[in-house]
């Protein structure tokens, strides 16, 4: 899969507003660009003369085995790009042996994803709403539906300013709705305008205490997503997080923040072996996956490329993105003299 060609082909199939919503970032899109560029600034220091006739990409996340260290990041509104929406993406992740992270603002509900893909390993990405009863309702539904972790996104106290969305007037077309948010209160209509939605859905008063509060309401492990600093990561772990996901929301929140590649080593050092560390943002090559592991991530998560695959060819298209990236990663392992994820140590990058 040529990701640039895949994106170009997806663009032809989508409205300009939908394409721009997905592709875009905040303000001047400095971080959006840097997320991709930063990985390539790390030079690989391969070993030679290792027996790499077989390489093993398998790993585990929160105790569950995975086929590779490549998982699906939560992204909103999949039915904008394909009628099967998140059910197709979840199917793709399951076929690839990967985690599927379902966004709070998915267009297929928690229950329908679980029903469509009972064999999947689904995690639920949670936005803590100002309405805590609604928040707990979401958590309980994810738990009841067999989702195995909560991904608490913390980089979104308010929505970043996406200038492209302002220019296109992005909003959800009729018939495409935030499926999880329907039915909590009778007569309630959820806004289909992202900015209005964010104003009510995201709670800017959230603090690290939210982690302990959530733990009182769920037995699911909590992954804190959107951390860029070692001190914050350590605080999240001290508050009970089982994992920390280094992320800047794909450059969609505060523009000018450091690339996730550049934040990863500090976070990994601060967390040590007290919790798992993941990263997302700009992962486009198997060699990027190798760099991420070498810089301290246990796994990477991929956002936009999966949506381009979904737009082009539904579940099969999304699966191809994941399996091709895994094949590239296996080749990068071989060329770097690395036989397993555990062997991808910090000596491999400079
Ligand atoms: C996102 N992201 C995101 N994150 C989250 O926690 N909840 C969400 O609902 C969304 N929605 C969303 C929509 C779209 C269209 C994009 C592109 C991204 C952020 C996402 O999980 C992830 O951090 C980035 O997308 C990773 O970067 P790449 O792989 O897209 O470069
Ligand atoms: C976004 C929100 C929904 O990035 O997370 O568009």
- The largest sheet has its strands arranged as 3-10-9-8-7-6-5-4
Bound molecules: ligand FNR, lactic acid
Report the β-strand fraction as a percent range.
Answer: 5-15%
DSSP summary, beta strand count: 10
- Give the helix level as a range of percent: 40-55%
Please tell me what the overall shape is.
globular
**Element-by-element helix/strand order:** HHHEEEHEHEHEHHHEHEHEHEH
Low-pLDDT residue intervals, each spanning 5 or more residues: none
**Largest sheet properties:** 8 strands, parallel
The span between the termini is 28 Å
| Average of per-residue pLDDT values | 96
Annotation keywords:
10 strands; alpha/beta; 350 residues; eight-stranded parallel sheet; binds ligand FNR; two-stranded antiparallel ribbon; binds lactic acid
Please give a structural write-up.
- The protein is α/β, with parallel strands linked by helices and 350 residues long.
- The chain has 13 helices and ten strands.
- It has helices at 3-13, 16-23, 30-41, 85-96, 110-116, 132-144, 163-168, 194-201, 209-217, 230-238, 260-271, 286-294, 304-336; strands spanning 59-61, 64-66, 70-72, 99-102, 121-126, 150-153, 222-227, 243-246, 276-280, 299-302.
- The strands form two sheets. It has an eight-stranded parallel sheet.
- α5 (110-116) links the parallel β4 and β5 (121-126).
- It is globular and about 65 Å long.
- The mean pLDDT is 96.
């Amino acid at each position: 899969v040529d990701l640039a060609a895949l994106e170009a082909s997806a663009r032809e199939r989508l409205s300009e507003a939908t394409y721009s919503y997905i592709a875009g970032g905040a303000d001047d899109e400095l971080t959006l660009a840097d997320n991709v560029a930063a990985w390539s600034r790390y030079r690989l220091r391969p070993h030679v003369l290792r027996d790499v006739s077989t390489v093993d990409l398998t790993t585990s996340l929160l105790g569950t085995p995975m086929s590779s260290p490549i998982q699906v990041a939560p992204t909103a509104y999949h039915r904008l790009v394909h009628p099967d929406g998140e059910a197709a993406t979840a199917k793709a992740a399951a076929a690839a042996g990967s985690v599927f992270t379902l966004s709070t603002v998915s267009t297929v509900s928690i229950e329908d994803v679980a029903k469509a893909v009972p064999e999947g390993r689904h995690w639920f990405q949670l936005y803590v709403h100002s309405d805590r009863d609604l928040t707990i309702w979401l958590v309980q539904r994810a738990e009841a539906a067999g989702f195995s972790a909560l991904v608490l996104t913390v980089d979104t106290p308010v929505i970043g300013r996406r200038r492209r969305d302002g220019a296109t007037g992005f909003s959800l077309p009729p018939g495409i709705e935030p499926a999880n948010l329907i039915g909590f209160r009778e007569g309630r209509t959820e806004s289909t305008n992202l900015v209005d939605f964010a104003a009510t859905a995201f709670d800017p008063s959230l603090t690290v205490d939210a982690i302990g509060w959530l733990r009182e309401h769920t037995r699911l492990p909590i992954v804190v997503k959107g951390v860029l600093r070692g001190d914050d990561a350590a605080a999240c772990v001290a508050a009970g997080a089982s994992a920390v996901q280094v992320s800047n929301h794909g450059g969609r929140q505060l523009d000018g923040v450091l690339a996730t590649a550049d934040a990863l080593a500090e976070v990994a050092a601060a967390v040590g072996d007290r919790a798992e560390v993941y990263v997302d943002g700009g992962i486009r090559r198997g060699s990027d996956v190798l760099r991420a592991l070498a810089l301290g991530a246990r796994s990477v998560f991929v956002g936009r490329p999966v949506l381009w695959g979904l737009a082009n060819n539904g579940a099969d298209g999304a699966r191809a993105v994941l399996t091709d990236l895994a094949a590239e990663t296996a080749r990068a392992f071989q060329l770097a003299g690395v036989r397993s994820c555990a062997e991808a140590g910090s000596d491999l990058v400079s």
